[in-house]
TrEMBL record:
Gene3D superfamilies: 2,3-Dihydroxybiphenyl 1,2-Dioxygenase, domain 1 (3.10.180.10)
Stored Pfam families: Glyoxalase_6
SUPFAM superfamilies per record: Glyoxalase/Bleomycin resistance protein/Dihydroxybiphenyl dioxygenase
Domain VOC residues, every copy: 4-124
The name this protein goes by in its record: VOC family protein
Species: Streptomyces populi
InterPro entries: Glyas_Bleomycin-R_OHBP_Dase, Glyoxalase_6, VOC_core
Length: 124
């Protein structure tokens, strides 16, 4: 038996809106859209995909993490060639840059619905 990662799923109060952000950021294609579920994929690869499901009670994590608060359970790491340019582009699309940045060659950001993601340079 072989196990393969099919997709990573983000819970959000508005799946179509968050999918639009990541579609623009990643340049991926939309393959399925409903009010409660949207699925994206790389234009040249079927898997893994990135999906968005309705979670009306979504609570964004606290960063940096602190005891007794909503903890980050997962995040996306996105490799880029130009860290400053891609950080500015992500912010122009609706992301926000976090104040706490633990590494010089990585940028921690939040998508428009509060999920944390990192942009990083090759080798980081």
């Amino acid at each position: 038996m072989t196990t393969t990662l099919g997709a990573f799923v983000l819970g959000t109060p508005d799946p179509p809106a968050l999918a639009d952000f990541y579609r623009a950021l990643l340049g991926w294609q939309e393959v399925d859209r409903e009010p409660r579920w949207v699925r994206l994929r790389h234009p040249e690869r079927e898997r893994p995909g990135l999906s968005f499901q309705l979670e009306t009670d979504h609570t964004p994590p606290v960063w940096p993490q602190r005891p007794g608060t909503q903890q980050m359970q997962a995040h996306l790491d996105l490799q880029v060639d130009d860290l400053e340019a891609e950080t500015a582009r992500a912010c122009a699309l609706g992301a926000t840059l976090e104040d706490h940045q633990p590494q010089k060659d990585v940028r921690v950001l939040r998508d428009p619905h509060g999920h944390l993601f990192c942009l990083f340079l090759p080798g980081a």
